[in-house]
Design brief:
Blueprint lengths: L3 E4 H10 L9 E7 L5 H11 L5 E3 L13 H13 L5 E6 L4 E7 L5 E5 L12 E8 L2 H12 L4 H18 L1 H4 L2 E4 L11 E7 L2
Parallel strand pairs: 2-6, 2-7, 3-6, 7-8
Antiparallel strand pairs: 1-9, 4-5, 8-9
Length: about 200
């Protein structure tokens, strides 16, 4: 894929031009990609361009032993309430204690970013207004993961990556994405103002 540069201001225009899902007043934006791709960094930057909109992280629902099969909780606690015009709140999973933690309120806002592995999975798509996928090579993703979690986590990361491969093959989030973003570090650009885009349907 050929790389092009897309200013965040242009991406915001695209997002604002996409209507919310039917029956919803909140436009839900998914930022999907595999572990270590750069999704969280992208979400934090994009949120500032969307008037500091709230961000829900899928890592607050996943766990080391259940990396992907947690999606019913996000549906029940966040997406379904929003689709019914209700307030959304969810119980965060604490990775340090391996236990459910505090309940988190989702502030009312025109936009909501759902960020993390499988954020644009098949079950979430009826609620999404816009979807991005961060494409990053496997070696880079693993290196970032081990830098964060330590070399002793390599087997855990390799197990997660196998489950991610199954998710990608099953749900094909890349084909569903409105914009495919490069998370690889090679190209020099101002990451605070623009993204490296591999494909854009707009």
């Amino acid at each position: 894929m050929k790389e092009v540069f897309l200013a965040y201001s242009e991406l915001v225009d695209q997002i604002k031009g996409a209507p919310p899902a039917v029956g919803m007043s909140t436009s839900v934006i998914a930022i999907d990609g595999c572990g270590g791709a750069g999704k969280t960094t992208l979400a934090a930057t994009l949120a500032t361009f969307l008037s500091d909109c709230p961000v829900v992280h899928t890592d607050d629902f996943a766990s080391a032993t259940v990396p992907l099969d947690w999606y019913s909780r996000l549906l029940e606690q966040v997406l379904v309430p929003l689709s019914n015009g209700q307030h959304a709140r969810y119980q965060r999973y604490d990775w340090a204690t391996s236990e459910p933690a505090e309940w988190c309120d989702v502030p009312t806002h025109r936009f909501l970013i759902v960020e993390g592995v499988s954020a644009s999975r098949h079950e979430f798509r009826p609620y999404l207004a816009f979807s991005l996928f961060v494409e990053t090579d496997r070696k880079t993703r693993l290196a970032r993961g081990l830098l964060r979690d330590g070399k002793d986590a390599e087997q855990l990361w390799l197990g997660w990556m196998r489950e991610e491969d199954e998710y990608i093959a099953r749900d094909n989030p890349i084909a569903y994405a409105d914009v495919i973003v490069s998370g690889n570090p090679e190209s020099v650009h101002d990451s605070a103002k623009e993204l490296i885009v591999l494909a854009c349907v707009q």
